[in-house]
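Hi,

Apologies if this is the wrong queue. I'm a grad student, and the batch job for DNA-(apurinic or apyrimidinic site) lyase from Hoyosella subflava produced an output file that my downstream script rejects. I'm not sure whether the problem is my script or the file. Here is the sequence I used:
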Amino acid sequence: MPEGDTVYRAATNLRAALDQKVLTRTQFRVDKYANLNFAGLRISRVWPHGKHLFIQAGDHVIHSHLKMEGAWHTYKPGEKWRKPGWQARVVLEADGSQAVGFSLGILSVLSAAEAPSVTAHLGPDLLSDNWDAATARDRIGSAPERAIGMALLDQRNLAGIGNVYRSELCFLRGLDPLTPTSEVADLDGLLDLSRRMLWANKDRTQRCTTGNLRRGQELWVYGRERNPCRRCGTLIERRIISESGYQSISVPNADERLVYVCPRCQHVRS
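Support response: The file is valid. Your script probably expects a header line. Output copied below for reference.
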């Protein structure tokens, strides 16, 4: 599942493949941009902000968001794609490199002047060199009755956390995701852990929060429903969280609101 670390790594790979190179061929496989041709333009910057990724070509900026299924791949000329061609939304080629955006949840082309407006409403980026914990704390604290599990996922508070990190962070801090933000004893500590956790994974292809990179041992609770807690042995549960509490697993868009918890370690309410 793409989260801030995934997008950061995609930006790093795209930067290595395209940065400061002149595009030789471009193809936008969406109706709105099908006639665009950026060949001859130089890639001057590639950067992420939370779950958003930007590529500047000349005075244009290609903006993408991976959503649930998206991915950016880089290839050498003639190399076989690792995903089917019908999933490709944009192809960018430069000397010795090809970048392909597959199944992108959002793909837009903006002017360089318009690009900052895309992320203006977002909170501080956890993987930015200018990470601002104080602003993130203030934004979360502005809604004291809101569940911490909802506040962490709200990109307006801080940018980069998705379902996986939300579950792992709440477990490691011993928090029921429904705990009101005003009752989180050490919000600064939670934010510090959030930053450190994403930073530790920004260059890894396999996300790990336990410190154990062996297959099946990488995560504490996420995706481990009905498996024993690595700390206390209680069976991990999968829940659907909303602003009003836990809901039925069959509600619409349930995958976007999943949390995994240890009922004992996190003192989860029924």
